[in-house]
Amino acid sequence: MDHNGADVNTLSLQNHGGIAVIHHRQIELRKRPLELPTTTFENLCCDATVSGKRFLLLCVYRPGSEAVSSVFFDEFTAVLEQLRWVIISSMSLADVFID
User: Fold this and answer.
1) Contact predicate 56/47, CB 8 Å
2) C-alpha closest to that of 7 among 31, 24, 28, 32
3) pLDDT category of residue 94 using cuts at 50, 70 and 90
4) Nearest CA among 42, 39, 44, 33 for reference residue 10
5) From CA 96, how far away is CA 99, in angstroms rounded?
6) What are the residues facing 5 on neighbouring strands?
7) More confident site: 90 or 65
């Protein structure tokens, strides 16, 4: 979708409402698939290029309607470990409900 210079990339809905990254058309995004599936949170991982500089963008959503468990921490740790070998700057955005 193009609206006043903004592009919208969304991921397929998994369990809940989904995650969207809304960005200006001058920011190039490519979805980066993760090797491990997650069941306790939704995620969208992208390679972004802005003015010739690359960085990794990881968006995470864990709904507050479900109790946090050790599985969440195991899955989140596995995702971060998978991405630690990416040799570019990174940015993580999270909406994580933990009581």
Assistant:
1) yes
2) 24
3) low
4) 44
5) 10
6) none
7) 65
